[in-house]
Amino acid sequence: MKRTLSTLAVVAALLAAAVLCAMQLERIPLDRPESRELLYLPSPEILKLVSLGNPELVADALYLWSIQYYSLFQPHERFLYLETIYDLITDLDPLYFDAYRIGALIMQIQVGGDELELERAVRRLFDKGLGNLPQSWMLAEAAAWDMFIRFRDRGAALHYAEIAAERPGAPARLKRMVGVWRDTESKWTVEDSIDYWRKAVAEAEDAYDRRMCMSHLYDATVLKDRQLLDRLLREHAAFSGACAESWEEMIAAGLLRQVPADLTGSPYGIEPENCVIVAYKRIKDQ
């Protein structure tokens, strides 16, 4: 009984001290960023100790406080202790999805300063979250789009998109996004692209997903065919003095054995002005 009363007395004293500190902080002028600096930021170990076995509740309280605290800043100001605070919150509750996501968003509101260091700070928070939430494709997707839109870092965006696409329950659109970004950034050969999209078609979840993947597969196969056929058309034009008007001319010249066709079996056309192939892309639902 005495031990319980002593514990309650300690808790009451801590609460009273917290209220007193809060009152003192409220009196600090808020007209300058330096006035908003924290007077003291406890370590995770101290907060876990005073949480009496409920660190998640302390994390919730700090999270709500942080949103209010940083709402006082302007985008051009340096957000004091920002990374430290969200690191502390996620130390208390490593599974706190919103703390990783919202913390990263608040960091990105800042303008000016060292953009590279800001991106590194955002990535550190995301990486910590992805390590603690290995099943979350949503956090990885958020990281991908933040890198793509906010920092224009396509390499980092693709990195996080690949993580998202491989996580359990990831929607089909993430796998398509990875393929499109790899195509755009030329991160693989055309053969790699064809293999990826062929597998994506085979694993499509529904008719829409299959059609989208087929569209990308079609484009990849056209790109590969174009590498050969455009070269043959140029060779024929150099020899004959004019672009071939039909594939039969190419066959007669011994450059082809048959009329070349696209992924759907439709013959390619020839654009005589630029002397290149034309793909008609008539993809049917199957």
Structure description:
It is a single chain. The chain is mainly alpha-helical and 286 residues long. It has a domain at 46-133. It contains twelve helices and two strands. A two-stranded antiparallel sheet has the order 1-2. Helix 3 (55-70) packs antiparallel against helix 4 (82-92), helix 5 packs antiparallel against helix 6 and helix 6 (115-132) runs antiparallel to helix 7 (137-149). The radius of gyration is 30 Å and the shape is elongated.
Average predicted local confidence, pLDDT: 85
Strand element count: 2
Structural class: mainly alpha
Helix content: 55-70%
H/E element string?
A: HHHHHHHHHHHHEE
Largest sheet: 2 strands, antiparallel
Radius of gyration: 30 Å
Query: Number of DSSP helices?
Result: 12
Poorly predicted regions are none
What spatial order of strands do you see in the largest sheet?
1-2
Assess the beta-strand content as a share of residues: under 5%
Basic shape: elongated
- For the record, give the distance between the C-alpha atoms at the N and C termini, rounded to a whole number: 75 Å
Produce the secondary structure layout:
Blueprint: H1 2-26, H2 44-50, H3 55-70, H4 82-92, H5 97-109, H6 115-132, H7 137-149, H8 154-166, H9 172-185, H10 190-202, H11 207-240, H12 247-252, E1 269-271, E2 276-278
Antiparallel strand pairs: 1-2
